[in-house]
User: Fold these one by one.
Assistant:
Number 1:
Amino acid sequence: MYMSGKKFLLHLIIFLSGISTVLSQDLADKFRDHVQFLSADSLEGRGVGTRGKEIARDYIVNQFSEAGLKSFEGGYISGFDFRKDLIWAKGENVAGYLEGSDPGLKDEYILIGAHYDHLGYERKAGTKIIYPGADDNASGVAAIIEMARHFAGNREQLGRSLIVVAFDAEESGLIGSYKFVDQSPVDLSKIKLMFSFDMVGMYEANQGMDLRGIGTLSGGLDLAQSIAREISLNINNKGNSVPMGTDTYPFGTRGIPSIHVFTSIKSPYHKPEDKYDLLDYEGMAKIHSFSTEFISRCSKLPFIKPSEEMKTFAVNNPEPKAVKIKSGFVFNSGTGYHNYKGDFYKAKPVYDFGAGIFSSITIKNFIRFEPAVLYDFNGSRIQGGSFRRHSVTVPLNAGIFLPVYMGFDGGFYVFGGGYYRYNLAADSASVKLDFTGQAERTEWGYSFGFKMELSKFIIGYTARRGITGVFKQDDPEIIQNSNYLTFGIKF
């Protein structure tokens, strides 16, 4: 039977479309299989120190090997020790590579990464509650596994070489990516572009894909938008700076253009409900199509250049030092009262406040010392009015700082320490007191409390308890106590 040219072309398009749909569905099924395995309850949320994280590690090693990735010297696994709160833990990055096909470019690298650790589990009322982390970040691991498989079977699509890394200890503060940057198996200057696939399982819910940091690559946004139009993919949020909350950040501090591929926090983020059946696997297949094409074209560019914004970022955000010193302004607002030492009563409170400057000295990201110099207005209710003092207070606190990296640079600080107070003036019920026979000129005491830091802003609670008395020759001894809400800003 004769078929016209137009009909033949139409049938060919339908046939090729059908093949594309089948291939896309097959890829979606592979993503589902990876995520279902990695987020299974038997893997215990892939938390620090769990057997489940070791199972996930071995699974990734096997997938890398089956995909055709070469291992670096020493094998796919690179171990490191890191501190988790007050204990030392073992972390293990999994990394492999594919050699590019262009003799003139293959000594340079593009890196794709995804963290494979998650929060683990907790026990409540005798019940084991698992945080499976399907979207965060079994989805990202599935993405890099299938990209590795794609490029291993299509090496002609790679000009530059490709490094593929499953990072450990991201949830503990980007530890794995920092360790990779510090101990890179290749010259770090040869890594020209980095991608973090972190939470890529909610394309439909997000009505598109985010490319956070695409502006760090010169010409990156134009190229991304061109490819997105070709495959009818939506790009939502874009940006010119390196995101802090994922494994892009350590690479960005070294001046490497770094892009976070992301479908936003649409899944039950950091909750036990983040399970594999909620993810959009067809959307992941679409992200795969975009990412492989984008990486392929970038790998063949004569030059990969960081944008001016990227250069500025790297200068303003250098790699972290063992000792970090910051300073800022602090304001305390609360109440003060007298405690009658040895008796079972205390005075009614009055409003207290203080303000001044502080410094924070953080060692190895966890140990912190904070000296400060404050003007202090403190006192208590007394019979007939209020007791008031104008003072200079010098606290010296120390404690544990627990960093967090969720879109901002910050953390939680629990502290304690001592203070010295020098009293400038005092009055009792509006009668001025002297410091010879009545009020004490100096005071010693201790402080304790906690603070939450969100980028450069600080909020918390501070308590001060006197050890030495307020007045001379008092029986019982009268002690100044104060409780404050603390606000601050770092310079």
Number 2:
Amino acid sequence: MTLYVAELAVAVEVKCERTARAMEKWQAETHAKLTTAYQARLAEYEEKLAALQFQTGFAVGGRHPSENLERMNDELKKNCISILTDQHYDLFDAIDPSAGTGLPQVDVSEAEAEGAYVRFFEQAFEWEHMTWITYPYFWGRKTEWDERLAFEDPDPLFNQFLKAGFCRVSVPARPGFEGAIDHFMTYGELWNGGPLPPISGDLYLPIADEIAERLDRPTDEVAQGEPWLVRIPTTLVRLRPDDALPRWEQDENGNWVEA
């Protein structure tokens, strides 16, 4: 309260600290913008590719690289589990085709036993972070050397995978499952020798987390080391009238556009 005051100056100093929630919101919004931009560029690329194929009548052979990568990961995952468990999936058969109705039905008790087995190996390891490297064809069966050398696929990574004679795979354990994995490797028992974990158990993995991981949801990954450039060979398909590569520049708004 003032009396007979003509002018008044007030200085206010505010100190702000970023909250973790604000950071997470910014990360989510930034990821959404990047994803939207990527999908737009991908749609543009696929449209140009389809137009070129229509004009030239040339069809690009082979499957999409993402489908090939999924197939390669599944095959490596299958064999990793075979090595860990010393089995080849011969006993997995929870369908009874000789039921009373003549129609195939689920063998409930068999499905329950197999489900606990499947769930352990699907959840105990972070298969989405599996890394691998192939070794040349001559480490495989000598009788198939000629056949492996003859493989030719438009996808260079898939072609390398088909030709490989051996493969080194690294699969990380899911945090929290280290003890359960060690127990299995030592005693051959799943889930630390007990039943499936309840919803309140330490080893319980919500299905929402599994879905998010398959959708490549960003978590708390920390980059290790400095990034480096990698050159990947392409097929002989050309999307430009000349052999020039695209060049990108930043506009006044900070967006990357093709020069």
